[in-house]
Amino acid sequence: MIVLGIETSCDETAAGVVQLQPDGTGRILSDVVRSQVEAHAAYGGVVPEIAARAHVEVADEVVRKAMADAELGFSDLDLVAATAGPGLIGGLLVGLTTGKAIASAAGLPFRGINHLEAHALTARLTDGLAFPYLLLLVSGGHSQFILVEGVGRYRRWGTTIDDALGEAFDKTAKLLGLGYPGGPQVEKTAATGDPTRFAFPRPLADRPDLALSFAGLKTAVRLAAERTDPLDEKAIADICASFQAAIADVLAIKSARALARFRAEYGATAPALVAAGGVAANTAVRTALQGAAENAGGRLVVPPGRLCTDNGVMIAWAGAERAAAGLDDDPEITARPRWPLDADAAPLVGYGRLGVKV
Ligand code: KG4
Ligand code: ZN
User: Fold this and answer.
1) Which CA distances in Å does 31 have to 1, 37, 63, 65, 306?
2) Which domains does the chain show, CATH number per domain?
3) Alpha carbon nearest to ligand 1 atom 2, residue
4) Cα–Cα distance measured from residue 53 to residue 77, given in angstroms and rounded to the nearest whole number
5) How confident is the model over 259-273, as a mean pLDDT?
6) At what angle do helices 215-227 and 233-266 cross, to 10 degrees?
7) Ligand 1 atom closest to 119 (CA)
8) What is the residue-wise DSSP string for 52-85?
9) Could you report the per-residue pLDDT of 116-168, keeping only the tens digit for each?
10) Which ligand does the CA of 114 lie closest to?
């Protein structure tokens, strides 16, 4: 089965072609990502209107290149898939309309994909991982622990009650004048800093559940920056290092708890913890997760960076997996700005940059 996937939910316009082979493994035939980072840099965050316009401008070209790189025509495809949510509605509409138009013109089936499901299934494409496994998704829009039981079967074990982790990195960077996107800048700056100089909080670390919170940490960083005089290069490096240390601690503690629950619910299985999303690129974060996984007798799986961040390949792969599993999808699906993976999880107010603050 050969599938074209289109991703336009945030600030990357992406398309990829994947082949699901008879033995269940996947082969990536093309992977094209056009980032809009420069268009948003001046604003220190993603501006929805700018994002939607930029998607319109390059979507056709990105799809054309994905098909050309795969050396295929539309008639060689078996399925077209595009992200239907969650995400910014303007961008979602661009990708969905493009995907539906191609499917309709080429007489192919169409599937609208949940972006979180695509992140959740990526490790099966890259590492051939078997179900069940635990996913920690930490990106600019999401921070959640998801138990992946099977295709279409997900349980959200914990999520942020306020900001997404990537958002906290971006806001910290902005506050310290480090540029956008903030995560890589904070990591670079932290490398020369003292992680013990500022005693930042470890939010919700003592709570027995898997909820996360990063808004208070962001405030603590702001207060530290305001109170530190001089706020020179050394002080900024120390703040970054201390901020990162707090995050690494929290993620290690929460991951250990999630893995303990995994072991309790799934018996002696050596648990696999998958990390995905832009923040999974952070070395301090990876080291913390690695430690937690090893302590639990399991292992950490991190798909290659290119497939951890937003891309079209994961959308194509999710489409292939859903089709192979025989799951019914609505070909008329429209954009869904909010679309929790786990319909049974309690709805949350005030989370992430895609949500409405209350
Ligand atoms: O998954 P992603 O590329 O896009 C979505 O948000 O969907 O994640 C982007 C986020 C940004 O907030 C960025 O600052 C953060 O991931 N990020 C990092 C690093 N690289 C990217 N955060 C910490 N350390 C990094 N090295
Ligand atoms: Zn994403």
Assistant:
1) 17, 18, 10, 9, 9
2) 2-121+306-324 (3.30.420.40), 131-305 (3.30.420.40)
3) 278
4) 28
5) 91
6) 160
7) 1
8) HHHHHHHHHHHHHHHHHHTT--GGG-SEEEEEEE
9) 999 999 999 999 999 999 999 999 989 999 999 999 999 999 999 999 999 99
10) 2
